[in-house]
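dumping this here so i dont lose it
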């Protein structure tokens, strides 16, 4: 075709630009393809990667604050694009919603096609069944009409084995295995169901962490959480007003073998009640054995040591008397902690290392060589001056601002020992060692629905993997005074062996036919 004729074709058939509705229809068709759904699923997996690279506010606000303080230049931009709250960011939510819409758009047409296939009769038999890979034939005396009439009772045999049967024009067609596609659709519907349940749970639920020391309690109000992450539409009035108290925290260690010194069991004994009108109940919880109370579940996450410290001023008055949480830093529970005593003049700050089995070496300094309480000691540095608590700026309780402080001494203490501050300014007594436990408290109103979706997804994938879609045909053909019965089968999956199926049905057909002698 020359240039002039091409120009004439263009003039006769001009390209009509798409309208706004046309562009929307094109976008919808692209979005609801399985190819785009898989791409969105892959994109969602990639979008989840920053959640494991950067600390998340939903998991550890303290680590987020520490990261921001260590990287002030890039943190502002990272925070602006949601890298510290990946799963609640606008871009992650957009991918999430597009994936759900794409899956729904893929599933609905498939459901219509599948429904039509279920109620449609089996397809007619091909003319030449002997060309099929799985086929058998045999000859009998009699005309094809008589033989075909005698084979009609094979339908009852096939129906008992859940075949759908069609008898017509000298052939019998049977088909089964529709539950394979049904299972596939159930699996995809269950995925959408889980996505919706997770979205509802993250919208109306909440999650928080609290540290309880032995002998201390907790009331389920927002102010008493160490960290608290509510859903987008969560209301504080939805909190169940329960009370919990940690009685004891017990840890069992492996004594011998390669896992020596590893904790093998955790058990926290709690007293709890769902309202002030009820009596306290007692329950021991552990890993994967939470306390279900009201609409929330309380999980045991970890544990550590909380030394009991008493500080007295120069007149002998007790100005601090409490157990202090020391955060573990290694597998042997070498722990660090800070004690702030503002009710002294000047104020006192203590920065310490606690070792349950203390040892001091030249290369590592003071540390613990075993996680259990064999030789507990605190190695502390004492600071005097202004703690900065009156400035109004929030402070990390696990960090000591030394800007206006002066170190006044270094000392190590064992339980029962006291260190006297210089110039009769007071004393610090290490009384004993107690333990603390870290709990995660979560409420997810849709968790049972998500579990149901997961069960349906498993059942659906099992059905789609193990149920085979198969078709069988039986045709009777005239062979010059005799009749030939041909049985053939086909599967929609190449790796399925149907030889036994064909042999069984051919044998049943042979048994039904009376062969004259």
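and the seq i came up w/
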């Amino acid at each position: 075709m020359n240039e002039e004729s091409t120009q004439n074709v263009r003039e006769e058939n001009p390209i009509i630009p798409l309208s706004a509705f046309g562009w929307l229809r094109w976008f919808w068709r692209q979005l609801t393809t399985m190819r785009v759904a898989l791409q969105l699923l892959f994109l969602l997996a990639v979008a989840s990667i920053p959640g494991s690279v950067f600390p998340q506010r939903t998991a550890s606000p303290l680590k987020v604050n520490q990261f921001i303080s260590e990287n002030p230049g890039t943190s502002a931009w990272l925070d602006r694009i949601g890298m510290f709250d990946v799963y609640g960011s606008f871009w992650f939510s957009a991918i999430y919603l597009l994936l759900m819409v794409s899956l729904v758009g893929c599933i609905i047409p498939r459901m219509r096609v599948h429904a039509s296939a279920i109620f449609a009769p089996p397809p007619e038999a091909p003319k030449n069944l002997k060309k099929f890979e799985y086929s058998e034939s045999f000859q009998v005396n009699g005309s094809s009409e008589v033989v075909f009439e005698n084979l009609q009772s094979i339908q009852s045999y096939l129906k008992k084995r859940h075949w759908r049967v069609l008898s017509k024009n000298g052939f019998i067609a049977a088909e089964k295995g529709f539950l394979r596609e049904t299972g596939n659709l159930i699996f995809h519907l269950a995925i959408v169901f889980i996505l919706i349940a997770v979205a509802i749970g993250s919208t109306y639920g909440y999650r928080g962490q609290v540290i309880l020391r032995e002998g201390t309690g907790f009331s389920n109000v927002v102010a008493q959480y160490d960290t608290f992450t509510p859903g987008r539409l969560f209301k504080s009035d939805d909190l169940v007003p329960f009370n919990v108290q940690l009685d004891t925290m017990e840890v069992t260690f492996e004594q011998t073998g390669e896992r020596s010194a590893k904790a093998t069991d955790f058990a926290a004994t709690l007293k709890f009640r769902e309202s002030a009108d009820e009596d306290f109940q007692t329950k021991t919880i552990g890993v994967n054995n939470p306390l279900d109370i009201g609409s929330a579940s309380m999980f045991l996450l970890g544990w550590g040591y909380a030394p009991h410290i008493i500080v007295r001023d120069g007149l002998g008055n007790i100005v601090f008397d409490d157990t202090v949480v020391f955060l573990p830093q290694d597998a042997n529970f070498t722990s660090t902690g800070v004690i702030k005593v503002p009710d002294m003049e000047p104020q006192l700050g203590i920065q310490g290392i606690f070792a349950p089995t203390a040892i001091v070496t030249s290369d590592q300094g003071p540390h613990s060589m075993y996680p259990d309480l064999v030789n507990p000691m605190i190695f502390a540095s004492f600071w005097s001056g202004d703690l900065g608590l009156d400035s109004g700026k929030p402070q990390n309780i696990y960090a000591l601002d030394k800007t206006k402080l002066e170190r006044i001494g270094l000392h190590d203490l064992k339980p029962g020992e006291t260190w006297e501050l210089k110039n009769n300014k007071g004393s610090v007594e290490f009384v004993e060692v107690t333990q603390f436990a870290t709990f995660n408290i979560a409420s997810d109103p849709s968790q049972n629905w998500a579990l149901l979706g997961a069960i349906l997804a498993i059942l659906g994938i099992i059905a789609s993997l193990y149920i085979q879609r198969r078709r069988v045909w039986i045709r009777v053909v005239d062979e010059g005074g005799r009749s030939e019965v041909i049985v053939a089968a086909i599967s929609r999956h190449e790796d399925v062996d149907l030889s036994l199926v064909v042999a069984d049905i051919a044998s049943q057909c042979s048994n039904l036919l009376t062969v004259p002698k």
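The mean pLDDT is 86.
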